[in-house]
Specification:
Four copies of one chain form a homotetramer. With 250 residues, the first copy, chain A, is an alpha/beta fold. Chain A has a single domain, classed as PAC-like subunit (Rossmann fold, 3-Layer(aba) Sandwich), CATH 3.40.50. Helix content of chain A is 35%, strand content 26%. In chain A, the strands form two sheets. In chain A, strands 1-3-6-7-2-8-11-9 form an eight-stranded mixed β-sheet, with helices on both faces. A two-stranded antiparallel sheet of chain A has the order 4-5. In chain A, strand 6 and strand 7 form a beta hairpin. The longest helix of chain A has 22 residues. The relative contact order of chain A is 0.18. Chains A and C meet through helix 2, strand 9, strand 10 and helix 4 of A and strand 4 and strand 5 of C. Strand 10 of chain C pairs antiparallel with strand 4 of chain D.
Chain lengths: 250, 250, 250, 250
């Protein structure tokens, strides 16, 4: 096998699609957001990328194997074509991150992509009340439009830079003159965070002019809040009173 | 030396041989099973694969060295030709797993192989009473035949997928349109498990229509049970009564 | 992307420039020294080197991304042209160190560089009173000139050799017949050390015949001394009396 | 730089020289033995091998740098030409071990080498009284001559095989039809062991028909015994009486 191989699973005709990336990362924000788009907007799998830099394994679902890969789906977001990059894996080494990103950019360029968004989370270390979305761009021309959509630009955040495919899509994209922005939802960093994914998608909606239903993400957010409450109860050594219980107090 | 080199140790004429893999892994199930086939069915060494991704070492047997390799034997299983892949090593890195698997598939394709079975163990974390064999396939067409042979397909097992050459034989095999199944004997995961190897081979016998004697595997299973009993005694701080002892009680 | 890629950010005409390297290392001595040259002598960025062996990330400054790279600035040091190599990263693996160094030497050779200086620190394990500069050369012809400039040559220092790009610039430089010296300011090894950087630059000034102002480095040294004093106070469990306090004693 | 580069430091005319390897390893047995040959028989440095798989560093001796390498010296052992491979480093990764060994074998083949000996130690875990030399060969034809020279062949030793360049010289040598033997002096494995090096060299003398003086190795062995005695004293909490002391007792 070559270091990077592209499998074409469907032939589609797209108009300068916008590339949206959501691979696993902090709080699974990007992955949750990208998968939500696929569910709500009926994404069609068009490409798989295999690589000798991905884990040497197959996943198994109901006894059927699938070689480790990242996937690109095409979908129509209220008139805007999107290419959505998702997957369960990141590359296993430094050269793999660069090569995988280059391969994805090759695919996007073949479709005449002129803009990309990398979705992810930025860890704050504490539980979030209001979910801000922090931005980074590889060209200054994108800044105003993002600020108008509510994105915050901060002097020194994220402090450690942006690591992995999200960062390289902007870095290698710039080398190809492909404008790109990273939208990073604030998240504690401790838990899978559907609310942060929603905040990030709301910015993307504003930027691209489409709308999706968020009820399934909200359901997952409720589930996560149950998890958080149970963890807090365990830490306090006794169950916290539920609303049901409180009704009888006093 | 090239990254992967094939040494031809014998020239043989085979009829669409079935590839059977049994490299080291969980409970040494695959390795025990494959080596049992070689012993019982008089395997002939036909190929060695050397690689700069295998450990940089020679093994020594009675003062004679052998460069690290994996080996392919040919044998006749009651009329069905088999290619059996065994060895003491797995590749040392991600690219090595992919390249070694590709090299083995190249050899199998040169012999017009049309089916492969990867043998291994699936860890359960507890001692096994009845040894089920769990399956995974890279084409849905193989499923019914395997179920008829007693293989179980489970929704989410093995949870972490199938790692290493066993998994990649199915994953890269699918990319070459070569049907493949993984037969995974349940095993505790703590000990070398000849009984799990036997359970896996019994499924393979059923699938390919051959029979081997299991007495040597059963002897090894008895030895392992002695080991388990001794460990349990040590944990309890005193020897457990043997059957001999029990005869005098009461 | 190729393993190593050179971006030309400005076209300049230089006369046999001297290559000066100051990448991150012990006490950040080399990096502080090189960056001080850039500030005081108005360095112009002429080349960036990108590599799949550098960390897979972008840095972010006020929301603007920059792909991981090392940078070469050109500057005029009182009539002597310098190429100054700086950056925030070292290569991530062995092959990367060699390849990055070779790429930098290719750039230097294209400008007809005939001499290189690698700047760094040599750890002593204790706080330094008088900052000696220890030297190493890849040709014996350089030794006398360095000794005249106050550089010390010691039998077995640095004991572990010189690791990374600093060492390889001398080692690979020798293979290309490019004379090179490493100037290593003594430093405790525990702290960022502007005084050691100054001592190293003072030797370089003497060797190349230029002069820079050191007041900004001295300010940073004062800041570091404040840090050291506060650490010492914390270790003693109470604040040490300041000069202000002492005036009232007795 | 290429992955492996050969520097020719002298042109020599040799007659089917025997390759002798002594790189760093258990008890530094091989390295001590090879360096003793160089000292006693006036070895001439003829080749250096550089590699991007060796540590990215230069060593420094009296201020003069040397890029990491392995070295081949030529010498005349009472009429037999030897190529002696020594150095301070092993390769940093698996592919490096294979490539470095291949490069050394290329050099040896260019000189029409027809026999190689890899020198090393085999750890026993306890202090040695009588230093046996254990052997391993890559062709059975060498066995008798080695046994006649006092080499022992043992069923399952060394248990873990022979790792690194020593092992690969035999393994890759066999792939090139170059007979090779590994001579492994028994050693505790805890200390640099000149006595084990001497035992190994005495076998090599017998095999190749030459003689060297061992007084400098014996001096180093005496020094090591002093070290061992001091360690034993420290463990017992008080100095052991010296012979001087004992003279006054009773």
């Amino acid at each position: 096998m070559d270091d990077f191989e592209i499998e074409e699973t469907a032939t589609v005709d797209l108009e300068s699609p916008v590339l949206v990336e959501g691979l696993p990362g902090v709080g699974h924000v990007g992955k949750l957001a990208a998968e939500h788009l696929l569910e709500e907007l009926d994404g069609e799998l068009i490409r798989r990328v295999y690589s000798t830099h991905l884990p040497p394994q197959v996943s198994v679902d109901e006894g059927r194997t699938q070689l480790a890969c990242v996937e690109i789906h095409a979908l129509d977001a209220d008139g805007t074509d999107l290419l959505v990059l998702t997957g369960d894996h990141q590359a296993q080494d430094t050269a793999g991150h660069y090569g995988l990103t280059d391969t994805v950019l090759d695919i996007a360029e073949a479709f005449d992509t002129e803009q990309l968004y990398a979705l992810g989370g930025v860890p704050t270390g504490e539980l979030i009340e209001e979910y801000d979305v922090v931005g980074a761009v590889n060209t200054d021309t994108q800044r105003e439009e993002l600020e108008d959509a509510g994105v915050e630009f901060r002097g020194d955040e994220p402090a450690g830079g942006i690591v992995g495919v999200s960062g390289l899509l902007l870095g290698l994209g710039e080398r190809r003159d492909l404008p790109g922005a990273c939208l990073m939802g604030e998240t504690s960093g401790y838990l899978v965070d559907p609310k942060s994914a929603q905040a990030t998608l709301e910015v993307l909606q504003e930027l691209l002019g489409f709308e999706v239903d968020f009820s399934s993400l909200e359901d997952r957010a409720d589930e996560m809040e149950d998890v958080v409450r149970k963890i807090q109860e365990m830490e306090q050594g006794q169950p916290a009173p539920s609303e049901e219980d409180l009704r009888y107090i006093g």
